[in-house]
Amino acid sequence: MKLSPRDAPAYFARPDPDRTGLLIYGTDAMRVALKRQEVIAALIGPQGEEEMRLTRIQAGELRKDPAMLLDAIKAQGFFPGPRVAFVEDANETVAPVVTAALEDWQPGDAQVVVTAGSLKATSKLRKLFEGHKNAYAAAIYDEPPGRAEIEAILSKAGLRDIPREAMADLNALARALDPGDFRQTMDKLALYKRGDDTPLSAEDIAACAPVSVEADLDDVLHLVAEAKPGEIGPVMKRLRAQGVQPVGLCMAANRHFRALYAAASDPGGPGQGIARVRPPVFGPRRDRMQRQAASWGAAKLEEALGVLTDTDLRLRSAGQTAPDMALVERALIRLATLAQR
C-alpha cells in the first residue's frame, strides 16, 4: 500500500508493529535515513539495538547470501519485544529476495524495513510494497518539512513555547538547511534554552543557527549600508590580512545589496520583504538589514547594484591593471557615500 506524503509523518512517528514491512525511498539519502531512523526507533524502542532486536543487512551482502533476510526475519533473540530486519541501499537486484521474504513472513516475525534511492514507477521493489496488503511504501520528496513536522521536531527536542514570529523564523530556517542540519540546530537550540523558561526568540535562533560563509564580511557590509565611509578602511585592512579575496568580497556585497533591494521593493514593505530573503536572516541582523532597506529605498539600491556589477566586471576583465582590492574598496566607499545622499 502507498503511504501518502500527508499520512507518512504520522505513520513514521507511530508505525504499526503488526505490519509485514515498510519501503522508504527517495533521491535524498539524508532524508530517507532520518525517516528510517525514526521508524525503527519507534518500532523497537531506544534499547532495541542494544538488545539485538535490530538486524542490519547491506543490499550488497544480501545479493551474495540471499538467505540472510529470511534468517533475520525468523530468528528469535534473548530479549522480548518487536524485531526489525533492516535492508539498506536496496535496488532491483534484491527485489526477488525481498519478495520471497515477504511471502514467507508470518505474524510474530521481524518487520522488514527497506530503504532505497530513487525508484521508478515500474520498479519491482516499489510494486512489491505498493501492492502488498500488509506493507507500506513511502516516497520521500526533496521538500522542506511542513509545519506539523517542524512542530514534531521541536517537541522531540523539548522546545514548546514557540511564539508566532519565532515559528516563522524556524520555518525559514527549515527551508534553508538540509534536514540533518536542521535537526542538529534544533538539538543545539534545546540545549541553549535549557533552564530558560522565557519564550523562544529570534535572538535565540540567531545564536544557534549555522553561521553563513559571509558572516566574517558582515562588518564592512553593514558599514557600507549604514553610510559610514570613514570606518571602511580599517576593516578592509583587517580583511586583507585575513586573506579575503576581492572577488569574494564583491560577490558578498552583491548578495547583501540584492537582499536589501528585494526587501525594499517588496509590496508588503521592508519587514515582509526581509522575511522572504534566502538564506534567512535572524534576530538583530534581520532588524538591522530591514532598517538599511528602508533607509536606502529601491531606487538607490538599484543604483548600488549597478556599481557592484560594474566593479565585478572590471575585476574579471583581462585588461584590468589596478589592484583588485583597491577597486573593491573604492566601490564600497562610493556606495557608503551614495547612502548619505
From TrEMBL:
- Please give a single GO biological process term from the UniProt record: DNA-templated DNA replication
An MF annotation (GO) of this entry = DNA binding
Q: Which residues form a coiled coil?
A: none
Q: What is its EC number?
A: 2.7.7.7
Q: Does the keyword Transferase apply?
A: yes
Catalysed reaction(s) here are:
DNA(n) + a 2'-deoxyribonucleoside 5'-triphosphate = DNA(n+1) + diphosphate
Superkingdom of this entry's organism?
Answer: Bacteria
Give Gene Ontology CC terms. Answer: DNA polymerase III complex
What keywords sit in the KW lines?
Answer: DNA replication, DNA-directed DNA polymerase, Nucleotidyltransferase, Transferase
What family classification does the UniProt entry report for this protein? Belongs to the DNA polymerase HolA subunit family.
Protein name per Swiss-Prot or TrEMBL:
DNA-directed DNA polymerase
Q: What organism is the protein native to?
A: Roseovarius atlanticus
What lineage does the source organism belong to? Bacteria, Pseudomonadati, Pseudomonadota, Alphaproteobacteria, Rhodobacterales
